[in-house]
């Protein structure tokens, strides 16, 4: 027996008012200052509805009304602006070696930044404590209280499923506290939106980096370990357990063999060259106790050291295989190299692109991130702002005026 058709819910005045408020707030979030007439044109709502909704949003703290200014003809139009200081969001990058926290207003402008080393951390709970201390420092620097924070985005170097749970299948992933989000919420009171760091890097690049207006994108974090964030038609790909973009498959790729990133390979190969007495290289003068940093390898190569240049050529060829594999699997328009080595990695692009043409007939465009080591924290801010914009009408603001 066929089921009777379901009757859609009746649109009540309260529901309509909420929908209309969402429309107006969405427009003002993206705009700077708009008149009532501009909002009417942008939303298709009547003048009376726009003004009534704006009055509601002003009373809630989301919108401020500006001085209408002078006009020689008729009544001046009301002018409205999104209150970017109605609250704040945090962008937290919980790296294996360092934690960085950005405090941003609701337009994503940074008002404070703090960072702390995680060197010597041995347990997940110790790492969470460092995150907490860094948050406290950043908020104090910004002059912002916990009550003014609406949400925090947080990135970890481990897969995170759609429910915000960290996978612990890998030894490296177990370095992160599986109860981190809950613990931070208990300490501070605001929601923590946990996400994989490469996914957040992808949001950051798409929002404010090299990938603006690019919806088919791979961001390759290439520091100590390769990790990638994938975007298809403007949507992040997670996979069933949050593992989309994990790079363990590189162990099966000829000429790559592991997930070691650009910084690690440069450091290890540079240190090995210094240890070989038969090798003549300026890296030996730069080394500390026989250990060379990735930055020193890049600098020596720029200064003409042949050994350092050879190391970078090998890294470029290896990275080209990684990019080509990602290109074949996901067919992105653009691959962005990001992370702490991004600025130096620009030196790899000529050799990388030359090698890439040998591995695929449809190579993606390759760029180097301009966001530097802030790439994950910027994406975490965007993640938090997405949450605020989606739930704005249900949030209680800790700041009621600009």
Automatic annotation (TrEMBL):
Pfam families: ROK. It comes from the Bacteria. Gene3D superfamilies: 3.30.420.40, Winged helix-like DNA-binding domain superfamily/Winged helix DNA-binding domain. SUPFAM superfamilies: Actin-like ATPase domain, Winged helix' DNA-binding domain. Belongs to the ROK (NagC/XylR) family. This is ROK family protein. It comes from Kribbella sindirgiensis.
């Amino acid at each position: 027996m066929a089921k009777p058709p379901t009757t859609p819910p009746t649109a009540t005045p309260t529901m309509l008012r909420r929908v209309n408020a969402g429309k107006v707030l969405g427009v003002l979030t993206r705009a700077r200052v708009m008149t009532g007439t501009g909002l009417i044109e942008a939303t298709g709502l009547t003048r009376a509805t726009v003004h009534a909704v704006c009055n509601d949003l002003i009373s809630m703290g989301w919108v401020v009304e500006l001085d209408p200014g002078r006009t020689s003809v008729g009544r001046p139009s009301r002018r409205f602006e999104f209150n970017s200081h109605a609250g704040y969001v945090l962008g937290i990058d919980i790296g294996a070696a360092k934690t960085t926290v950005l405090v941003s207003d609701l337009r994503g402008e940074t008002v404070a930044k703090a960072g702390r080393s995680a060197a010597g951390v041995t347990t997940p709970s110790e790492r969470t404590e460092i995150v907490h201390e860094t948050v406290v420092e950043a908020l104090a620097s910004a002059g912002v209280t916990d009550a003014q924070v609406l949400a925090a985005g947080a990135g970890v170097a481990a897969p995170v499923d759609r429910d915000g749970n960290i996978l612990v299948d890998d030894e490296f992933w177990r370095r992160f506290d599986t109860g981190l989000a809950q613990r931070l919420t208990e300490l501070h009171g605001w929601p923590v939106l946990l996400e994989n760091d490469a996914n957040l890097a992808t949001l950051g690049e798409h929002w404010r980096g090299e990938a603006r207006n690019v919806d088919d994108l791979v961001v390759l974090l290439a520091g100590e370990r390769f990790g990638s964030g994938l975007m298809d038609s403007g949507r992040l790909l997670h996979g069933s357990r949050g593992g989309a973009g994990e790079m363990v498959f590189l162990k099966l790729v000829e000429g790559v063999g592991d997930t070691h990133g650009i910084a690690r390979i440069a450091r290890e190969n540079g240190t090995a060259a210094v240890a070989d007495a038969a090798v003549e290289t300026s890296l030996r003068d730069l080394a500390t106790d026989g250990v060379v940093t990735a930055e020193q390898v890049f600098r020596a190569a720029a200064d003409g050291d042949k050994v350092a240049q050879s190391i970078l050529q090998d890294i470029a060829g290896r990275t080209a295989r990684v990019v080509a594999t990602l290109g074949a699997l996901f067919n992105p328009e653009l691959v962005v190299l990001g992370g702490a080595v991004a600025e130096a990695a620009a030196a790899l692009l000529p050799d990388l692109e030359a090698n890439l043409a040998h591995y695929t007939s449809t190579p993606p465009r390759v760029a180097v991130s301009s966001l530097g080591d802030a790439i994950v924290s910027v994406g975490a801010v965007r993640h938090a702002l997405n949450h605020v914009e989606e739930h704005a009408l249900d949030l209680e603001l800790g700041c009621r005026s600009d």
